[in-house]
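haha ok so turns out i had the wrong file open the whole time. this is the CORRECT one, sorry everyone. sequence first:
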Amino acid sequence: MNKKFTIIITYIILSFNSHLLSSENNNTLKIGLLAPLTGEYQDLGYSLLYSLQLALDEIDDKNVMIIPRDSGSNNKEKLNHAIKEIRSQGAKVIIGPINNDEFEEVRKYNDLVFISPSNINPEFQNNIISVGISFESQILALSKFLKKKNRKKTVILIPKNNYADLIDEKLNNFKINNFKIFKYNPDPKVLTGEIEILTNYSQRKRNLKLRKKMYEDKDDEESKKMLEKLEQKYTLGEVNFDSVIIIDFGNSLKSVLTSLVFTDVSQKKVLFTTLNQWFDESIFYENTVNKLFYPSINYQEFKNYQKKYFKTFKRYPSEIAILAYDAVGLIYYTWKKKEKINNVSDFYFKGKIKGKIGTFSFDNKKIIQDLSIYKAENKKFTKF
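then structure:
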């Protein structure tokens, strides 16, 4: 860690703690932060720390302070020590933990409220509220989009991994019509063969071969023109779906997209959609795909946040840091509205709340984000 970086960190921690000596009255909102400030994920931890500093600057209320503590990574002893230290300073609400695997550990602190950037479960869980961009919110946004586009045969593509059963369970709780699930092996060596089965590729290749043979021995002009058209095709016949939702990301997502194009799935007739995208510009260089649609947070707000973060700290934030930024706003809004925060029920609101990531609402003890649909096309992101 270089000298300049150390100075910035020292300044932020001093700034966060400057109010600790000033007042212990009921007019002070104390927010704890559990972040991995040491170890392999310390970059993420400091990204969260910096993001909270930006939020404090924007709120500009001397009665709000952050109490950051190092929670380590998968370290129960350090996590518990951090929580107890934060609680001893009088905080009732804590941002964290980052990892939902630590939820079981923090549940025993039922006198505290934890606001986690995790997106595994949007439901209020005892003393935990997850504010991550949930699977449920994304599927809901995509379902509305596909309905507007009049798509009636959707295939949901799920990689065979540790999350496959969880995704199955979540999909069963949704009332989505006219869809089927197809699970694939993410190994590129196996994937293409599985996508060939999904798209009936072999039969469509045979269809083309047989159709071409019908005109090959004919000399009339019409037959020659028809053969010429067939020579420009790779397959003949349509796939039995009009849209796909690919629940994947990164290189694995790109492999699926490449396999769909390789098996001659028409992008003019089939909508390609996906989840879990944070405006990843590397998708622009996936030359096989013309258009890719996905639900996401407010793009302009995200870019503005990134610019402000970079201008202040000369580095770019972790993607989930903006969730911590919004969490501060949510906590502050609740505190101002209710004049206290004692438990998760204080966060039950009617109507919608606007944050940096977009608008969200509380429905039946769940946080649902109103996500927009974006299109990646011609090396730019466009809101649908």
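The longest helix spans residues 42-59.
again sry for the mixup
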